[in-house]
Amino acid sequence: MIGIFGSAxxxxxxxxxxxxxxxxxxxxxxxxxxxxxxxxxxxxxxYELRYRMLMGFIQDIQPDVSCELEVCDIEHQMLxxxxxxxxxxxxxxxxxxxxxxxxxxxxxxxxxxNPTTWQKFYKHQEIDAxxxxxxxxxxxxxxxxxxxxxxxxxxxxQELLTFTTPSVxxxxxxxxxxxxx
Length: 181
Hints:
By secondary structure, the protein is of the alpha/beta class. The protein has a single domain, classed as Rossmann fold (3-Layer(aba) Sandwich). Helix content is 46%, strand content 14%. The protein is globular, with a radius of gyration of 16 Å.
């Protein structure tokens, strides 16, 4: 089973890691798909920066994860082809075709699994019918919003490491990301 875990990853956090660890129990590979054009209109750092953070994040967490992890740029490819917004259904459909497999699972956290939110997803009923869903519990309530706030408030590297991984902190510092003007 290949798990598909889409998120803004703005930035990736230990909350994302927790979801990955839960989903890894059912997958032999997980593709992390950073949003290129968020269907709900979230404001995000440029794609390239989030992609770089995610690459470092995977290097940091891979030793703890029981399956292979890979960053997948399918949304960026779809955006470059003129698709916008990009919906989960379209990503899953495209990956099913490109990977030539029907053994895909959509990994989601409790926010998106909430029926009120889930019903807002484009073709949510078709997603339910075609692919398995892996719904992760929120065991590590660490959100990207909270991490961005900590960075803006000039938290120490030590404090930031309670929210994300060393490679992500290093890139945030090197690029001066999420800081107040």
